Amino acid sequence: MPHLHINTTNTARLPRLYVSTDTLFLPSLKQGDSCPLTAAQAHYLGTVLRRQSGDYVRVFNASVGEWLACIIELRKEKGCLTLERCLRAPNVTPSLTLAFALLKRDATDLALRMGTELGVTEFIPTITDRTNTHSLNLKRLTTITIEAAEQCERLDIPTIVAPISLTSLLNTWPMQQTLFAAIERLGTPYSSQNFALNNKVKKGDGLLIGPEGGLTLRECHLLQQYHFVIPLSLGSYILRADTAIAAGLTLIAHYLRLRDISAE
């Protein structure tokens, strides 16, 4: 197979790989440093993408930013890169938490993927009255968030905590941060809600999405007891839980970005 030559002045189409700080074993990075590949990354580059020594990729994480790197060794289950130049400086994603009732496997996977692409920095799987599953594979879900971050060009990887009950979520939530709770048939005028979001949403706030079938009346009454909980309407339609996650995050992230722009 002929060697793949790539114009490194146009790096946007180069493969992107997340590298853990633990993997680098370096307090800081400079040109010429080596970066080992995991077995999965070596397989992906060599077998799936058919890359070889001399080809270029991008590597990133939150603490070092994004770097252009050249493949200097690539075997079936291992490989090594050499860092050439920094493409993007480290940049912190504004903190945004998604607390969502555990869903079936495919829907949970989708929630993690969409949440990562929409700027979630922390996922809190939540057990509600109508939650049908109470366990999840954190390692597999972390892989999903890494793949989503690689695809969407963000530098950091969101964290995923172990599942907790809705009561525990409310009792441990930072009181200075707002938790927007999506509640069906809220009846709040959309224009009034947009005004409230524009004036209240800030870094560190969160979104709560209930399970399929919605939050129970008991849970809605429970939420009303906490001053930091603000009900959020997602419109007149009743949405699937995964659709509600995308709609709610898009709405909050929009106003979060507006606050960032106005602060510049």
Q: Can you give a write-up of this model?
A:
The chain has 264 residues and is an alpha/beta fold. It has two domains: 16-88, Hypothetical PUA domain-like, domain 1 (Ribosomal Protein L25, Chain P, Beta Barrel), CATH 2.40.240.20; 97-263, 3-Layer(aba) Sandwich (Alpha/beta knot). It has helices at 21-24, 39-48, 105-117, 138-152, 166-172, 190-200, 217-223, 241-263, and strands spanning 16-18, 34-37, 56-61, 65-74, 79-88, 97-101, 122-127, 159-160, 164-165, 179-182, 206-209, 229-232. The strands form two sheets. Strands 6, 7, 8, 9, 10, 11 and 12 form a seven-stranded parallel beta sheet that branches. The chain has a five-stranded mixed beta sheet with strand order 1-3-4-5-2. Helix 4 (138-152) links the parallel strand 7 and strand 8. It is elongated and about 60 Å long. The model is unreliable at 1-6 (pLDDT under 50).
Quickly describe the structure.
The chain contains eight helices and twelve strands. By secondary structure, the protein is an alpha/beta fold. The N terminus is likely disordered.
**Percent of residues in beta strands:** 15-25%
> What does the average pLDDT come to?
85
Assembly context of the chains: single chain
In the residues, how many domains can be counted? 2
Going by CATH, the architecture of the largest domain would be 3-Layer(aba) Sandwich
Largest sheet: 7 strands, parallel
Give the fraction of residues assigned to helices.
Answer: 25-40%
CATH fold-level topology of the largest domain:
Alpha/beta knot
Find the CATH superfamily of the largest domain: SPOUT methyltransferase, trefoil knot domain
What is the alpha-carbon Rg in Å?
A: 21 Å
Low-confidence stretches: 1-6
Q: For the terminal residues, how far apart are their CA atoms?
A: 50 Å
Work out the helix count.
Answer: 8
Shape: elongated
The first-level CATH class name of the largest domain:
Alpha Beta
Judged by helices, strands and strand pairing, the structural class is alpha/beta
What is the H/E order? EHEHEEEEHEHEEHEHEHEH
Number of strands: 12
